[in-house]
Amino acid sequence: MVVREAEVRIGRVVVSLETASAWIRDYTNAASNVVSERPYAFSAYDCYDGGTAEPDRLTDGDLLAPGLLNVPVKIRSFYGLQRVRGQLEEALRRPVGETPLAAVSDLQELKQAVQALYEVLDHPAVRPWGVGGTTLSKVLHRKRPHSVVLHDRWVRACYVGDDAPVPHAKARSWADYMILITEAIREDIATQHGGFEVLQAATRKSGLLTDARILPYPRHCCVELQGRRTRSRTGRAPSRSRWRSNDILGLRLCT
Questions:
Q1: d(CA 251, CA 254)
Q2: At what angle do helices 85-92 and 133-140 cross, to 10 degrees?
Q3: Model-level pTM?
């Protein structure tokens, strides 16, 4: 995929740095978010005063953090996360977690760390009820924001597909899947240093968010692409209320 100097690549999507910077300025406008009828998650999630700042310790408050990224943790899921807390904390202690993704030199060590974080989802006897990679990533990212990537359906839309970095697979464990997603996001960050400097400058304060968090929001990318696709057929953009998961599946046709 050819990426021009004034563009940034997000999986199989390429957008202009100007557009991505505008998204980030909007997303990190905390003053606007606290009064908006449709606020973004910054700074509610990123500055959440629940849990602990210790990177290898998960309190009950930490387990509830996904709710601030629109993934509420149900009671049964909360109890399940409590049961695997010790295993998750042990995985968070791995030294590679302290290193920004782009600076990781031992990729095998990174793979092993991601494996240790997500393997709890692949064993029916210990897997927390109702918890998948999206919920768990939103628990873990706050603890290791430089190295643990976030996941949701929008990330999947940008990074998974026949023409995307992560190919479709009929059977794949959560751990193997999250390794592939982490590697793909690391590649985007590591090979676009200049672009990410521009994106960092678009935040309200440099270093406010890590590169793994500032990755131009895949949701914006998908909305932008789907809007282009619809406009090409009808001459007008779709309303936000019409976004559904089956809309996302067609995005690979647009890239």
A1: 5
A2: 60
A3: 0.86
Which is it for strands 7-10 and 13-16: parallel, antiparallel or unpaired?
antiparallel
Total Cβ atoms within 10 A of residue 26: 15
Mean pLDDT along residues 87-109: 97
Residue 158: burial class (beta carbons within 10 Å; 0-12, 13-18, 19+): buried
Q: Where are the domains of the chain?
A: 7-253
Q: Which residues pair with 9 in a beta bridge?
A: 14
Look up residue 128 and give its two tokens.
């927390």
Alpha helices in the chain (DSSP H): 17-27, 30-33, 60-63, 75-83, 85-92, 107-118, 133-140, 153-159, 174-190, 193-201, 211-214, 218-234, 245-249
pLDDT, average across residues 58-86: 97
Helix (H, G, I), strand (E, B) or coil at 109: helix
Write phi, then psi, for 198 (nearest 5 degrees). Answer: -65, -40
**pLDDT averaged over every residue in the chain:** 86
Beta bridge partners of 121: none
